[in-house]
Structure to design on (355 residues):
């Protein structure tokens, strides 16, 4: 768990410090534009990736500051982690207990998952948004998964360029072999994650549908790699100067509401939000069961689309998970009955920590 977190020159925060007092629920309230979401964004970056907004580093640094920023946290195991960015750098840097570390090292210290208003439309938005969401979730258990997804996208770009420039067959064979192997590993990780999270998911089920995933489910990974490689070799033409091929880059995740017997995208906004939060709860339980780690859950505008009963049920269930929750909202009264909570008010980048 996070014991304290300090932001310096991050978004609209000159300096902001939150002490959690070891509590499981940290409720951050304040008006729109006060900097509440910025706090969650800073916490999300402690897992080593680009954070829940994915913004360029230069945009995150406080306007009028020195061009850099830092995020520093004390953890319950008495370790200290830090993410910082200096003006003129091309990327962030990390430290663990004062020593230089890689960004991937941070992912082993904290397992962080988040839900923002953007994810409220997860089930009705584009398949690419769902792939990004579930790939991020799967990467909580397979540290190489995110790297494979990024490498696969790069290989597809290289393949398109090679075809356009008339590369020889041997060169294309080598690229296709790498794509097939990477795609098979990505598909296998997605299938495994869907199966494992479904064990803990209440009233819903996750499925993954795609060319490579289907071959694995109907046969095995070795056959999938071989069949997909043959598919790539037989599809080396450009359409309007673009490469159009099927594969894990076209796969989609489905979520079915078992209680209503409907796909999640056909349920109401409130029901979709409930299903999404149930998915986050299942993910948290899976992390604790499989890894033994206590996940950090970030809920931006946590009460949106939920009635009073649904809010009470959510925080009751969150309290039962082995997680620490940071939640934002406009009105602190909405969270009055949240157990084991520290309340934080945020106004114009200023923090008032009420332990």
């Amino acid at each position: 768990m996070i014991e304290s977190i300090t932001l310096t020159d991050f978004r609209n925060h000159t300096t902001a410090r939150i002490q959690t007092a070891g509590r499981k629920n940290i409720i951050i309230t304040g008006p729109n534009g006060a900097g509440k979401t910025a706090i969650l964004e800073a916490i999300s970056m402690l897992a080593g990736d680009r954070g829940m907004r994915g913004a360029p580093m230069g945009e995150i640094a406080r306007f009028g500051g020195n061009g850099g920023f830092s995020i520093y946290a004390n953890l319950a195991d008495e370790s200290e982690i830090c993410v910082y960015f200096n003006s003129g750098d091309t990327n962030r840097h990390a430290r663990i207990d004062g020593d230089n570390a890689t960004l991937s090292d941070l992912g082993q210290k904290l397992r962080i998952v988040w839900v923002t208003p953007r994810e409220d439309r997860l089930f009705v938005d584009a398949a690419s948004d769902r792939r990004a969401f579930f790939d991020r979730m799967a990467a909580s258990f397979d540290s190489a998964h995110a790297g494979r997804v990024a490498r696969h996208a790069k290989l597809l770009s290289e393949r398109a360029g090679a075809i356009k420039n008339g590369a020889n067959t041997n060169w294309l064979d080598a690229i296709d072999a790498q794509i097939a192997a990477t795609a098979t590993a990505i598909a296998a990780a997605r299938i495994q994650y869907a199966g494992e999270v479904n064990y803990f998911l209440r009233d819903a089920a996750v499925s993954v549908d795609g060319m490579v995933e289907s071959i694995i489910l109907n046969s095995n990974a070795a056959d999938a790699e071989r069949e997909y490689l043959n598919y790539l070799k037989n599809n080396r033409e450009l359409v309007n100067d673009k490469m159009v091929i099927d594969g894990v880059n076209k796969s989609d995740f489905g979520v079915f509401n078992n209680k209503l017997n409907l796909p999640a995208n056909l349920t109401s906004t409130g029901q979709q939000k409930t299903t999404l939060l149930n998915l986050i709860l299942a993910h948290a339980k899976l992390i604790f069961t499989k890894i033994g780690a206590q996940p950090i859950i970030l809920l931006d505008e946590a009460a949106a689309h939920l009635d009073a009963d649904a809010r009470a049920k959510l925080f009751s269930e969150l309290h039962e998970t082995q997680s620490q929750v940071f939640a934002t909202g406009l009105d602190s009264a909405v969270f009055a009955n949240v157990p084991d909570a520290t309340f934080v008010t945020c106004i114009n980048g200023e923090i008032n920590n009420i332990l």
